[in-house]
UniProtKB/TrEMBL annotation:
Residues 121-240 form the DUF7042 domain. It comes from Caenorhabditis elegans. Residues 21-102 form the DUF7044 domain. Residues 1-19 form the signal peptide. This is G protein.
Length: 513
């Protein structure tokens, strides 16, 4: 029995050693002309399993109806996201070896290119912005100037191709480019990118030739990249010249960033905003959505109202935009945005038509709730709204009387404007911000709005999410509850409670004398 176990172990060890010698280093899912190819430590998709290797030369095998099929494969790993390779057809030779493989490979063997699926973008080895003319196999476009610039996501570029009379079938188009790898080969600079109207639509290889502030960029005809051995073989060639980047000429309100940048949350879109002196960035899930560069402070009506002329990159669209900021409180900012104009000589920003309004809330801020108490509606036997009863920041809202537990919210901010008290509260479960307006004059009317800027103009034209009238009562007759609510911190300190109990005992003692 022991002899059988030892023999099995030796067989396993030998098999493991052979597998280790042929271990493939580029595991993952790859794309070849749009088709997926899965590479494991031992196999390359339907090309076969690795039998032997010597540096970048591999011998693969796969079972077929005719017997064992052998393939020779040589790889050229230029980047962790880009892999070139050459391979032979099926060879039915049981004596096949690496020595024979080295004789079968030639310079004429077709080069294939693999791109790692869902590769993380890398910086493109070209500088933006730039203007260019272009040349295809249909002709040369010299009469119109196209341009390239960075998108809000810094690792993505936008190419604005102009239509040209010299190329009748070529229409104007905007293509996006997201680089996934760059390398050098025989002194030439190459890079690979996802290109198209959306990331991942197509893959292309590029060759880059630059002298001073101008140069050429050549693009492969397809994802095979096999013809792109020099820039003269490119299917499309861009003749470019560098443009000057846009720099900030002013600073946004200091309240928005203070000593360092601060996080602000949009009530309209749920995006996050960070301001760095002359730069303002909106992001979604950590990816830039919009970037504003401060060009000119047009007016400062007070310490609360500011108007700016900005250069904006929204997605991959660029232009100029008027922005007005109203600091309602240190943690509340109302923002008005004009339309985005492609022309630098657009209207004076001191008076501009507002296209979008938004309210920004400083992330992590909260404020004691107004209208403290239990509030009842004629439609429910239990309170539909409890405010400040468990803590001065708490709010419980019942949307459906059959579900009396309600939604827990935290008061973030509040302010008064004319007859309305505006309340901004965050749902504790979804983390979404809601805008509420409360009118106390005779009617006790509360209205709740979803995804809207929390100010008069926006709520007056918005659809009401929830609305009800109510009567009110106190949270509790307990003196201790009232004391805790009026404490300056969310939870009163042990010393504060101790003082209150002593005072209460003293008062009780004197009343009993």
């Amino acid at each position: 029995m022991l002899r059988i176990v030892i023999l099995s172990f030796l067989q396993l060890f030998v098999g493991f050693s052979q597998g280790s010698r042929c271990r493939l280093p580029w595991t993952g899912v790859w794309l070849e002309n749009g088709n997926e190819l899965n590479i494991t430590h031992n196999s390359i998709g339907n090309l076969g399993n690795c039998v032997h290797k010597s540096r970048d030369l591999y011998l693969l095998t796969i079972d077929t109806s005719r017997g064992d099929c052998y393939r020779c494969l040589i790889t050229f790993p230029v980047h962790e996201n880009v892999l070139h390779y050459k391979t032979t057809q099926c060879i039915f030779d049981p004596e096949m070896s690496l020595e024979k493989c080295s004789q079968l490979m030639s310079a004429d063997t077709t080069m294939h290119t693999l791109f790692r699926k869902e590769a993380i973008p890398v910086p493109c080895p070209i500088e933006a912005p730039m203007n260019f003319t272009y040349q295809t196999n249909q002709g040369i476009c010299n009469s119109r100037t196209s341009h390239l610039h960075r998108c809000a996501q810094y690792d993505r570029l936008a190419l604005h191709y102009q239509a040209c009379p010299e190329i009748p079938n070529r229409e104007s188009a905007i293509w996006q480019m997201e680089c996934i790898g760059s390398w050098q080969s025989f002194g030439l600079q190459y890079f690979a990118a996802r290109v198209g109207y959306s990331a991942g639509e197509q893959y292309r290889c590029f060759i880059h030739d630059k002298t001073g502030s101008s140069g050429r960029i050549g693009e492969s005809a397809d994802a095979g990249c096999q013809e792109l051995t020099h820039i003269g073989a490119a299917a499309t060639t861009l003749h470019f010249r560098q443009d000057s980047p846009v720099y900030s000429g002013c600073e946004f309100p200091e309240t928005l960033y203070r000593e360092k940048s601060r996080n602000w949350e949009s009530m309209l879109l749920g995006t996050y905003h960070r301001v760095y002196h002359g730069s303002w960035i909106s992001s979604v899930k950590g990816r830039n959505d919009t970037v504003w560069t401060c060009l000119q402070k047009v007016s400062e009506e007070s310490n609360e109202h500011y108007t700016y002329r900005t250069y904006v990159t929204k997605g991959c669209k660029v232009g100029y935009q008027c922005v007005r900021v109203h600091m309602r409180k240190p943690h509340i900012a109302h923002v008005e945005y004009g339309e985005i104009s492609p022309s630098e000589s657009f209207a004076d920003c001191s008076d501009f038509p507002v296209e979008t309004r938004d309210t920004l809330i400083l992330h992590g801020s909260k404020e004691a709730c107004p209208i403290r108490g239990k509030h009842y509606s004629s439609t429910c036997s239990d309170p539909i709204l409890q405010v400040g009863c468990s803590s001065k920041y708490s709010m419980n809202l019942v949307r459906d009387c059959s579900l009396p537990d309600g939604d827990e919210l935290t008061c973030v901010a509040n302010f008064k404007h004319e007859d309305n008290t505006f309340i901004i509260a965050r749902d504790s479960l979804s983390r979404q911000l809601f805008c509420m307006t409360y009118v106390s004059d005779r009617i006790n009317l509360l209205r709740v709005y979803d995804r809207v800027s929390c100010e008069d103009v926006s709520v007056n034209s918005a659809t009401i999410y929830l609305s009800f009238n109510f009567t009110s009562d106190s949270c509790s007759p307990s003196l201790l509850t009232g004391f805790l609510y009026s404490a300056t911190s969310e939870v009163a300190s042990a010393f504060d409670i101790y003082q209150f109990i002593i005072l209460l005992l003293v008062a009780t003692f004197w009343n009993n004398l």
